[in-house]
Automatic annotation (TrEMBL):
<dbReference type="InterPro" id="IPR003719">
    <property type="entry name" value="Phenazine_PhzF-like"/>
</dbReference>
<comment type="similarity">
    <text>Belongs to the PhzF family.</text>
</comment>
<protein>
    <submittedName>
        <fullName>PhzF family phenazine biosynthesis protein</fullName>
    </submittedName>
</protein>
<dbReference type="Pfam" id="PF02567">
    <property type="entry name" value="PhzC-PhzF"/>
</dbReference>
């Protein structure tokens, strides 16, 4: 008997763009070692394993693996899995169908609002389960520039400088002056550990204010070579943590702020991540991540 799985493209409405995701729908009985081996076999940035919920108020328990390790939380697996489970529940819809999906991840339960539409990609938005917070110091910009094969003068714009935040998973956020500098960024593995040894993360989210799409707020790339991800097409958990850096450097006023982050364009996998930030009394009050996903393939694992 096989275990059903699906492959989705996430943070996009078009197949073969966005960030691919594998979701194993029937994961009962798999060991940790088997899950890690299956994730390495798929060799996508993340693979999700769906397990029956322990709490009847939840839709499923899920575990998330990169090719090299397990994660407590991740954005595009949350969006893709929520849309897939809603599709499993309702099948092909006529018109529009709303759903609520609650996924129990290692970080805790994650509430996802899903909208399915006839002949269209699904959309999901989730409440970030942990508000962004600083996650340690960073090395000086010259060392970070060397780790990204950039010049020191490429690092920073306006008042933005390298910082480290986490909303379940920590990232070092590296501002660069423009799209040209961003296009030249490449991990220099001989300098990588030196650049990020003072931080709690060795994953670099590199961003600039210049964008390809007129209504985007930032263009970004994410490098995580030590997790087996040379570059990620779309990183929802990084954008969730990025809300902390945006709030700090841009001094957001009270209210709700909608910011679209574009990623993956320089890989030929264009992705759009919707970020909503609620500010109350000049402090972060809530963060939400949203995006579309389309099912690309279905199959069975004979394990």
């Amino acid at each position: 008997m096989g275990r059903r799985y699906a492959v989705l493209d996430v943070f996009t409405h078009k197949p073969l763009t966005g960030n691919p995701l594998a979701v194993v729908l029937e994961s009962e009985g798999l060991s940790d070692e088997q899950m890690q081996a299956i994730a390495a076999e798929f060799n996508l940035s993340e693979t999700v394993f769906v397990l029956p919920p322990e709490n009847p108020g939840h839709s499923a328990n899920i575990r998330i693996f990169t090719p090299k390790r397990e994660l407590p939380f991740a954005g595009h697996p949350t969006v893709g899995t929520a849309i897939l489970l809603a599709t499993e529940r309702f099948g092909e819809v006529s018109g529009e169908q709303d759903a609520m999906v609650v996924l129990k991840e290692q970080i805790g339960p994650v509430r996802c609002g899903v909208v399915l539409k006839e002949n269209a990609a699904g959309f999901a938005e989730f409440d970030v389960p942990r508000l962004p917070q600083p996650a340690g110091p960073t090395e000086n910009p010259d060392i970070i520039a060397a780790a990204l094969n950039l010049e020191p003068s490429d690092i920073g714009f306006e008042n933005h400088r390298p910082s480290c935040y986490e909303a379940g998973v920590p990232f070092v956020f590296v501002p660069v002056r423009d799209l040209d500098a961003l296009s030249r960024a490449r991990p220099n593995l001989s300098q990588w550990r030196k650049a990020f040894r003072e931080a709690t993360s060795v994953d670099a989210f590199v961003y600039c204010r210049e964008t390809r799409v007129h209504d985007s707020g930032f263009h970004a790339r994410m490098f995580a070579p030590e997790m087996g991800i040379p570059e990620d097409p779309a990183t929802g958990s990084a954008v969730a943590a990025f809300a902390g850096a945006i709030h700090y450097f841009d001094d957001l006023p009270n209210g709700t702020h909608f910011i679209r982050v574009e990623q993956g364009f320089m890989m030929g996998r264009p992705s759009l991540i919707d970020l909503e930030i609620d500010i109350e009394a000049r402090k972060l009050h809530a963060v939400r991540i949203g995006g579309q996903a389309t099912i690309l393939a279905r199959g069975e694992l004979f394990i």
